[in-house]
Fold this sequence. Notes:
Helices cover 62% and strands 8% of the residues. It has helices at 16-38, 45-54, 60-67, 71-83, 105-108, 111-126, 131-149, 153-156; strands at 58-59, 87-91, 99-103.
Amino acid sequence: xxxxxxxxxxxxxxxxxxxxxxxxxxxxxxxxxxxxxxxxxxxxxxxxxxxxxxxxxxxxxxxxxxxxxxxxxxxxxxxxxxxxxxxxxxxxxxxxxxxxxxxxxxxxxxxxxxxxxxxxxxxxxxxxxxxxxxxxxxxxxxxxxxxxxxxxxxxxx
Length: 157
């Protein structure tokens, strides 16, 4: 059974696709946040963990570039993750002002739970789509993201 499509405000009629993207992002983010809470993680921390699982020992700047979040958000997330025993941060040997982030054993142990969470979220998200529809959606989503990201910075904000 499909949920009814929420009635968009009249002003959104000028951007029906954009309003649909907003609704999708909101629903997806809420479901992911609930799943992350069950793992004692805050939204965004899973992205940092996944990037560190791919390549441990990144600098905070490298992580910033990888996840596309602002400095204060990443810094706060890393502090929480350090308090939770998932990562350690230490000054780089080449420059004591640069912080390098390493996973702890507890952080490395998050690989399978995170993969399982993403699998479950994917299954939930695509449960009413055919494989072809899901593939088409992914291509379309990246095409839209590329169009938005190709704008000069001041136009996209």
